[in-house]
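A quick word before the example. In earlier lectures we treated sequence and structure as two separate objects. From today on, think of them as two lines of the same record. Here is tRNA modification GTPase MnmE written that way.
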Amino acid sequence: MYVRDTIAAISTPVGEGGIGIIRVSGPASQQIAQNIFRAKGNGGLKSHRFSYGTVVHPATGDVLDETMLVYMKAPNSYTREDVVEIQCHGGTLVVSRILSLVIEAGARLAQPGEFTKRAFLNGRIDLVQAEAIMDVISSRTEASLSLAQHQREGLLSQRISAIREAMLYALAYVEALIDFPEEDIDVAVERDVQGRVAPALAELQGLIDGFEEGKVLRDGVSVVLAGRPNVGKSSLLNTLLKEKRAIVTAVPGTTRDVIEEVVNLNGLPVKLLDTAGIRHSEDQVEQEGVRLSLERIPRADLVLFVVDSSAPFTDDDRVILDAIGSKSCIVVRNKSDLTSHCELPEGVTSPVVAISTLTGEGVPELRAAIHRTFVHGKAVDSREYVAVSHARHRDALIKAQRSLQRFVENLAAGVNMELLPIDLRDALDAVGEVTGATTADDVLDRIFSSFCIGK
Ligand code: GDP
Ligand code: ZN
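And the structure line, produced from the sequence above:
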């Protein structure tokens, strides 16, 4: 398993704040707390009760801070080990001095994600739930948060464990077949096996199919505003950003020419990309603007092809349309407040939305159209909504599905009977990679090292 030593870290963000929390986990936690903490009033540390007191250097008697301390006796803690959390004043120096004292008293510095890794290794949560904890922390919209919370609560794990049950049932059956080849194959039992494996296969397919949407909700999407200069791209960007609550973060562009803004579009994290700065300068040539549009198109999950509906469709519009090719696209006919003079060329199959950034007309429809491009299920915010949102999970589920499919085919055809248990075990292993039961150590290390310190 792992070395059962005692780890410690600062669990609150770096910097100044109202409180800072130092978290300690492992067998020496309680001892360390008793060494460095002087409770006011009577009674020692009681599990799951806050104590008020001071942190004192045991050798010098120096008081480091006035604190609240909570001791959580194993197994009722985040890690299932003895845990102590010390709440002190949130100054950078105070917090790090108390951490140093905890280390002096016998703990070692925790690695990123090590508390959560212990929760996993001690069986409190599976790997799917551990990964969801990080997703909860990094969620930027309601929909991505709700997806992460459902995964953390174990909804995805439950679906996977039902699939696993069906595989185990089938495995017990084929092992009996091999052990007692003389016995007549019981048709009813075989039908029962098929009756359990078929829904498991369908469930696997459903989870795999849901990945695109899950990924979109978790990671968000890139939407590029493409169009020749002066069609209203920047105005549209500002319109989409204007609804103040929609703004999630403002990320400075990676290049001088591009601005990126993340907006919350009906729960979907959307990164909008538009050209910045130089596009409005006097010396900008038309071609420059078109070139910038063309460069950004390959990076898009969706292109908003903005045209000026009050002007004829130009050669530059055509160049951009050709560059979009078969990419997912919505044609935005901007300036619908003016008389229409723009006729789209034949053969445009993308959805078309007429808007005016001046009057706001059509903007809600555009938001809905963008949302619809990525999210098809209606029930994203329902209590039961589950989707696979990690590529790692999707890949393992595909492996499981292939092995299980092979099993079903061989069983039905009555051939390669000796392969039946092998295929089933492969399928079980693949499912175990998702939940952490059979995940290789280096994969585990990689997953947990992407966590934050103190989590
Ligand atoms: P960009 O070069 O594509 O980013 O275009 P801008 O957003 O800078 O807009 C170019 C010009 O079109 C500006 O003068 C805007 O005020 C104007 N404009 C943008 N949207 C509309 C609209 O919906 N209606 C009208 N009448 N003018 C618009
Ligand atoms: Zn612009």
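Notice the following. DSSP finds 15 helices and 14 strands in the chain. We will return to this example when we discuss secondary structure assignment.
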